[in-house]
Hints:
The protein has one domain (about 5-215): 3-Layer(aba) Sandwich (Rossmann fold).
Amino acid sequence: MEAGKKRLATLVGCNYAHTRHELNGCINDVHAMRDVLVSRFGFAPGDVALLTDAPGSAVLPTGANIRGALAAMIGRAEPGDVLFFHYSGHGTLIPPVRPHHGWHKPDEAIVPCDFNLITDLDFRQLVDRVPRGASFTMVSDSCHSGGLIDKEKEQIGPSTVAACSSAAVRKARAMPFESVLSHLASLSASTPFTSATTWWSCLGQRRARGSLTAASTRCRIR
């Protein structure tokens, strides 16, 4: 990356502790990603915003707080700057807000810790505010992540690859829309969701990690 240009990041990890949708590795994911951005890619620690639902977290990853953090990051951006957003948590599919995908294709969304969903249309509106000449990269370690920026051409993920639409792929960090509605209506416990996490050695400790994040943070600059 060109010297003198700002490198700004917003990292979000949701474990949904003490809910039936609890995950194990999402907070670990964002801490590992922050370390990679600072040590390998030259991001200043003060320019990396961290939102997790860990106990005592300074800023919880609610829908409003995530939107606010992304808006603040984009508001600081100038031509040539590098913007990076990493999300680790549940993804879901919702009935289309409007028939921009066709009448039968649902919208993709991420699930903040307060279940105030952020949809592909929300991300489209945010990305449209990025200054011309600045770059915006989004990595979502969640299910249904392949179409999270509405109408964006360069996207990779299960939502854009038909071969990856099997039940085995979808269940990793997926949350059915009905479960979102159920959680908002009632906090009664039921059968917990299972997170497909990768266990690997990190600083001598074994930690739960998302598969995509584990692969991303082990990359090397060539």
